[in-house]
Write a structure and sequence with these properties.
The protein is α/β, with parallel strands linked by helices and about 120 residues long. Helix content is about 40%, strand content about 25%. The protein has a single domain, classed as Transcription Regulator spoIIAA (2-Layer Sandwich). It has a five-stranded mixed sheet with strand order 1-2-3-4-5, sandwiched between helices. It comes from Reyranella soli.
């Protein structure tokens, strides 16, 4: 499984790491798993520093539309995307522009900075 995640219910935090090439189906599986485990409203870190994303711009925009759907049907939490390479950063920007929702979203080059920012965000109720 190219996307691995853990959910901390006490911290109301989801940490996901993508490794190996990632497909739209992998991201959709992540969305479904986090939703099923009751973590969609939690703060999230999604790290894509170790993966060559195999997702086209159109598919990134479609995934952004999926996030907007989740936002319309329930609360979604703040998201920190960690994208170290220029390519992953560019893909994260495409996704961020398509995933317009009422929640904070930032893209970072380093995990430490992402975690600091995320820890400063209000913990969802």
């Amino acid at each position: 499984m190219p996307v691995h995640w853990t959910i901390s219910h006490p911290q109301r935090l989801v940490v996901a790491v993508a490794k190996d090439p990632v497909t739209v189906a992998d991201i959709e599986q992540y969305f479904a798993g986090v939703t099923a485990d009751g973590g969609m409203a939690y703060r999230k870190i999604f790290e894509i520093t170790q993966t060559p994303l195999a997702i086209s711009e159109d598919n990134l925009q479609a995934l952004g539309q999926r996030v907007m759907f989740y936002a319309q049907h329930g609360q979604i939490g703040p998201l920190a995307i960690v994208a170290a390479s220029d390519e992953s950063y560019a893909q994260a920007l495409i996704f961020a522009k398509a995933a317009v929702a009422k929640r904070p979203l930032q893209i970072f080059r380093e995990l430490h900075a992402a975690r600091q920012w995320l820890d400063a965000q209000p913990t969802p109720s």
